[in-house]
Amino acid sequence: MARVTRYSKFEGELDQLDSSELMQMIQEALLGQGMNDPYDPDPNARPSMDDLFDAILEALAERGMIPEDMLAEAMGADDVRETRLGQQIERLMDKLQQDGFIRKEFEDGEGQGGQGQSGEAKFQLTDKSIDFLGYKSLRDLMGGLGKSSAGAHDTREYASGVEMTGELKNYEFGDTLNLDTTATLGNIMGKGFDQLEESDLVIRQAEYNSSAATVVLLDCSHSMILYGEDRFTPAKQVALALAHLIRTQYPGDSVKFVLFHDFAEEVPVSKLAQAQIGPYHTNTAGGLRLAQQLLKRENKDMKQIVMITDGKPSALTLPDGRIYKNAYGLDPYVLGATLREVANCRRSGIQVNTFMLARDPELVGFVRRVTEMTKGKAYFTTPYNIGQYVLMDFMTNKTKMVN
Predict the structure, then answer these.
(1) Cα dist. 5→67, 235, 298 in Å?
(2) One domain for residues 288 and 381
(3) Residue 301: what pLDDT?
(4) CA-to-CA distance for 331 and 161, rounded, in angstroms?
(5) Count of structural domains, the chain
(6) Residue ranges of the chain with per-residue pLDDT less than 70
(7) Is residue 156 part of a domain?
(8) What is the pLDDT of residue 74?
(9) SMART domains per the record (predicted)?
(10) CA atoms 279, 391, 385, 328: torsion sign
(11) 329 and 248 housed in the same domain
């Protein structure tokens, strides 16, 4: 669960709030599914400037940061935007644009260059926002683990190049000549340089850090926001945190993101934060197929799929492009096609690690088969701890795979 900062009182004008502090306050709204009807989700829904106004207003009210006289005025007004509070929130929204956190966009034919009502405009999160949200998500998740920072993927393998942090060893033909001067001189001081032999040379080993290509498969089918629980927002937070972790700590790695529902689609990390639920079904086979296509382009030591889902496979893309769907039970036709894609992953040396947000008996059985087939792992988690499982698994996985 995301950490909430409580403010006893804010001194000064609200529009003097720092943009990064404001982004921290509204991050759940920016990543959430608030505008999506759980019974009729719209995957193309995009937030408007009105949504942003409401998110800021709610964040300020929840934290008790609105002065009483300003709050009373707003509660008695027909239009909050016309009050002092509304005007200060408008200035905060302008500051978010000026500081590069959001970019206002208008629908075709609507106001340009600042014309038109704010409600007519949509907004997009910028790369700066995505980086900020990824950092915040990572810090919150790692804080829950009691970790202050994350390093590179250490393995028990050593190479005589890269970074000299390993143990000493005698030089062997083929090693990179990372000489340890002190140890080498100690071997030859007694007999002189003219008697130097290959066995006198001592090198310092470098820790070998393997590279990994990861595709994160995110289930965004209907069930991810049904039953009174939003499972998709925590999944997006995990994905953003993983993207930030890889970019800042493992620059040799790559990560891509695939949404799967009635079909599967790759989404850039810049569009991930505002991705919405829908359509309805779970085309796991399509997601696995697309993930394999993306991983084939990568030249990495290891390739893995991280699948986050809460439902059984219930859809399949037919050879002619039509979508076959069956939401009732585990359809043998859908299951067979899905397991064939899992077998293809195994043949390609791709490990599939599955993070389940439900415990339906049929689903448990399906996940067990996937895990056994690819020698992967399965975790049965909740929206509140999935981030910790995903990040810790990622940071330890390469050691296990290499060895």
Answers:
(1) 18, 22, 41
(2) yes
(3) 82
(4) 52
(5) 3
(6) 1-12, 33-41, 107-120, 142-181, 192-198, 203-210, 397-403
(7) no
(8) 92
(9) VWA
(10) positive
(11) yes
Number of H helices, E strands in the chain: 12, 14
Structural tokens at position 72: 């009373």
Q: Is 200 in the same domain as 217?
A: no
Q: How far apart are CA 157 and CA 292, in angstroms?
A: 27
355 close to 390: Cβ distance less than 8 angstroms: yes
pLDDT score for 198: 63
Cβ-contact 203, 168 below 8 angstroms:
yes
Q: What is the pTM of this model?
A: 0.74
- Does residue 284 sit in the same domain as residue 384? yes
| Residue range of the domain that includes 100 | 14-106+121-125
In a 13 Å sphere around the CA of 47, the CA atoms on its Cβ side amount to 24
Q: What is the pLDDT of residue 73?
A: 93
Contacts of 65 (CB under 8 A, 6+ apart): 7, 9, 10, 14
Q: Are strands 206-209 and 212-219 parallel, antiparallel or unpaired?
A: unpaired
Domain annotation covers residue 130: no
The pLDDT value given to residue 113: 45
Same domain, 188 and 267: no
- pLDDT reported for residue 220: 92
Would you call the peptide bond into 361 cis, given omega within 30 degrees of 0 as the criterion? no
Judge whether 113 lies within some domain: no
241 in the same domain as 379: yes
Cis geometry, peptide bond prior to residue 279 (ω within 30 degrees of 0)? yes
Asked whether the beta carbons of 325 and 378 are under 8 A apart, the reply is no
Same domain (yes/no): 18, 85: yes
Residue with tokens 């200060």: 88
Tokens encoding 161? 């190049």
Classify residue 44 as exposed, middle or buried by CB count within 10 Å of its CB (0-12, 13-18, 19+): exposed
Whole-Å CA distances, 231 to 8, 27, 31, 228, 355: 31, 16, 12, 10, 12
Helices marked H in 189-304: 232-249, 269-272, 284-296
